[in-house]
Write a structure and sequence with these properties.
This protein has nine helices and no strands. The protein is mainly alpha-helical. α8 packs antiparallel against α9. It has two domains: 42 residues, no CATH class; 69 residues. The two termini are 30 Å apart.
Length: 126
């Protein structure tokens, strides 16, 4: 699998585009909107509703229950992690998600649980 964000040429190109091009004529994302002319239906091309990135993250976490349990146990056994993070809150968010996937438990999974796991794993590396 290739990651386009590791291509320096692409990054230089993207950062080299003047900001005015993205917002010309009072719009947003105008570069991509105009590039999609004739390729996308107008209702898609000019759609202003923003979707959520990784909207299925709660379901993907549930597909990897054993891994999440292992990570949480690992974090709970590291004193430095417990010093900085509210591990019971992470555990509660995980248990609530396992009990039922709702908009509220999904938001907690992305805003609290995953960010907490990321911070905890960073702390473990110290």
């Amino acid at each position: 699998m290739r990651d386009p964000t590791t291509d320096v040429r692409l990054l230089e190109y993207c950062f080299g585009i003047p900001d005015e091009i993205h917002t010309r004529n009072g719009g947003e994302r105008m570069l991509v909107r105009q590039a999609m002319e004739g390729l996308l239906p107008p209702e898609v091309q000019w759609n202003t509703v923003r979707g959520r990135q990784a909207a299925d993250v709660a379901l993907r976490l549930l597909d990897h229950r054993d891994e999440m349990e292992a990570v949480l146990r690992s974090l709970e056994s590291a004193p430095i992690v417990a010093e900085y993070l509210d591990l019971p809150a992470l555990r509660t968010a995980w248990q609530a998600l396992q009990a039922e996937v709702t908009p509220q438990t999904a938001v907690k999974a992305t805003t609290l649980l995953l960010r907490g796991v990321m911070a905890g794993m960073f702390l473990q590396q110290l």
